[in-house]
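Exercise 3.2. Students should predict the tertiary structure of the chain below and write it as structure tokens, then compare their answer with the key that follows.

Predict this chain's 3D structure.
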Amino acid sequence: MTGTGRVYVSEFNYTNVNEYAARNKKNAPPLCQIPNQTFVNGIGVDSSLNLWAPNAYPTGLGFTAIFAPNCGKMLSQIADKDGQPAGVAFDRKKGNVYIENIYGPPPTLLGGNVDVYKVKSHHKVRVLKYHDPLTYIWSDEALDATGDLFVVYADIYNKGHIIEFASGRNPAAKLSIALGFPGGLTFDSAGNLLVGDQDTATETVYAPPFTESPIATISLKAASVSCRFNLARTHLYCSDFTNGSVDVYSYASSNPTGTKYLYSFNNGIPHNADNTGIALAPPPPN
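Answer key:
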């Protein structure tokens, strides 16, 4: 779908979410923009190609705004009472959406959580929590093909850890994977887990059940919070906040070590935008 898809990019320090053509080798400007979005981290696209953009309030909490495709009208909002929303993941088989809160509710703003809603009705199904006093920033989330939810978080010492909510339900189990300050999580077509590390500017690839050493380590152009695949999972798009760009890599699940940098685009992304979120339309299935 590269060439016919779309890429959305959020800008934490500004108020626009930009939409680009997925194949943007000539660094064309955004096709359109969604304005007036505040402190947006991670974003997501559902199976109807609607964009979900978590907005945060400076004091905590916030809401998730849902927009029609191609920078269309705002369709609805989901107010967040459990923390500051910062990530979105979809379980297309169960019709659930997982809205990750980077922090818990005020006044402590410690230890994030995940609100689980029905995509269509916005009915809250449950809240996923992890009881560890050292838990601090919940950085990103991803669902595997069986519906297990993986969350990466930083502890109070800025070291990364990954927890798994089997079938998207409490309780969580911690994996043995350790990393520096965490970036994002995503899965390739073989079910391998890609783990971003901002300290080393890498994506480390782990094969299921994620208990052995990594099968590959991919060096990125620069630290990126989140990386996402196109529909075919042949291209990996990383939101490079260091350079204010989107960096595109070729990728094959059969040979992650062969991942190659292809090109970048930055037209319409201010250098200090802190572009953290990225989402592809159409998205790959979980």
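Discussion points: The chain has a mean pLDDT of 95. The chain has one domain: 6-281.
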